[in-house]
Design a protein that fits this description.
Layout: E1 3-4, H1 17-21, E2 34-38, E3 45-49, E4 64-66, E5 86-88, E6 102-108, E7 114-119, E8 125-129, E9 134-141, E10 147-154, E11 163-166, E12 174-178, E13 183-187, E14 200-203, E15 219-223, E16 230-234, E17 254-258, E18 266-270, E19 275-280, E20 288-292, E21 305-309, E22 314-315, E23 321-322, E24 326-327, E25 347-349, E26 355-360, E27 374-378, E28 391-395, E29 397-398, E30 401-402, E31 405-410, E32 419-420, E33 424-429, E34 435-439, E35 444-450
Parallel strand pairs: 1-5, 3-4, 5-32, 18-22
Antiparallel strand pairs: 2-3, 4-31, 6-35, 7-8, 8-9, 9-10, 11-12, 12-13, 13-14, 15-16, 16-17, 17-18, 19-20, 20-21, 21-25, 23-24, 26-27, 27-28, 28-31, 29-30, 33-34, 34-35
Amino acid sequence: MNKRSFKSLTASVSVPVLLALSAGALFSAATAHGGMSPDSSQGQTVIKGVGEAGDYTNDAPGVRHLIRPSDLPAPYATPNIPNNPQVVTHGEAGALKVPAGFSVTLYAEGLRGPRIVKGAPNGDIFVAESGAGRITVLHGITADGKCASRTVFAQDLSQPFGIAFYPPGPNPTYVYIAEPDTIIRFPYKNGDTTASAAAETVIDTIPGGKNGGGGHWTRDLCFSSDGKKMFLSVGSHNNAMEDNKPELDARRAAVLEFTPDGKNEHVVATGLRNPVSIAVRPTTKDEVWTTVQERESLGDNLPVDFVTRVPEGGFYGWPWYYVSGGEQPTLKGQHPELRDKVLVPDVLLHPHSAAMQLCFYTGKQFPKEYWNDIFVALRGSSSRKTRSGCKIVRIHLKNGVSSGEYEDFLTGFVISPTDVTARPVGITSGTDGSLYLGEDGNGTIWRVSYTGHSK
C-alpha cells in the first residue's frame, strides 16, 4: 500500500440459495439519479438517490442519505473504473468531523491489519489483527485519552476476524474467534489479557481457507442473547459466480446458525454476497442484523451495499439478482422463479461504500436518541470514479425499525480525490460509553466520546 507522509493529526468536533429455497459541501444541483431536500421536521439535509449523491464531497455529520430500489440505474450505465485510494499517514491534512458535542481522540496506533474490534464486558478492547494473525487486547485510558497498555492475547492464528464473548452477559467464560475455515475458542474471564490455555476447535468445516473455495475470507459470529444460538456469516467464493459453479457456494453467501458447541448447523438466510459483520439487536433474543458488500463490475452506481435484519428463510438475490429485482447480466434467464423471492434490505448504502463492521450503541454516554442505534464502518470505495464511503454512519431505529435513511456521523478521512487518512473497518461500543473505531490504512484505533459541548 502506497503511503505518503503528513504531520500528526488531532481530530475534534466540529447463495446456497437453491438449497435454502428447494451539510458539508453539498452538490449544488440534483442529478439524473440523485437529489437533495431539507427535512422540514429537523432542518437536516436528506440526499436522495445514487450517482453524485454518493460522492464523498457531500459528506458531513448530520447529512442523511436515502436510497430506494427505484433509484438504481441499469447495469453498465457507467464504466467500471479501478480507483484505489492512496493512504497517507494521519496528520494535519484535515480535521475529522463529528456532530456538535462529540470529540475524537487517537486511542492506539501501530496495529497491523486491524479489522474487527470488540468491547469486552470489563471494558478492554479486543482487536483482530487479521494481517498479523493475532488478537490484541487494548486496556485502559491514560489522562490524554490514549490506550494505557496492550497485550497479545493469542497469536499464530489464520486471518482471525470475528470475536464474540460467551455466554453473553457480564461474566463470559470463553472468547470465540472466527477464522476463514474454523471457529476456535479460548477460556476467558474478565481481565484476561493473554490466553490461559490453548485454543479449542469448535468447527473446522467452514467453506473457505484450507477447506477450499477461496473468495471472501471474513467470518463474523455472534450469539443470541440467551446463549443458545451461535450465528456465523460466510461470504461467497467469488464476485458474481463468474465460473458458473453454484456448488462452490453451498453454505456460503449466507448466515448460518449453530449451537455454541458447533453442532446442529442450520441455514438462516441466503443470497448475501458478502455478509461481513453480524450482530444481535439489543432487547431481542435473536434478531440478527448484517452488513453486506454487493458485487462489482456493473458500474459506478450499481448495485448498493446494504444493512439489514436477517429473517429466517430470507433470500437477498445473489448471484442471480440484486436489490430492485435487477438480474445479473452474466446469469440472465437462469432462475426466473427466484426474482419475486428477493427481499428488499432495511437500509441501502451508496454503491461500493464497502460496508464493514456494524455495532449497536449499548452505552449511556451519548444522548438518549442514540441509544441502541446502529453504527457502521464504511471502508470506502476502490472501484468508483469518485470516492464513496470511508466514514462512520449511523442508522436510527425507532422501535427497532429503520426509516431506510442513514446519517453521516464521523467524516473527514477523505482529504482529496486520491488521498485518505484511514479506511474504517471496525467499530464497537465500549463499556465507558464511547465508540471505538478501527481502521486498517494506518493501523489505528480512535475513540469517539460525547462531551456535551463543542471543542
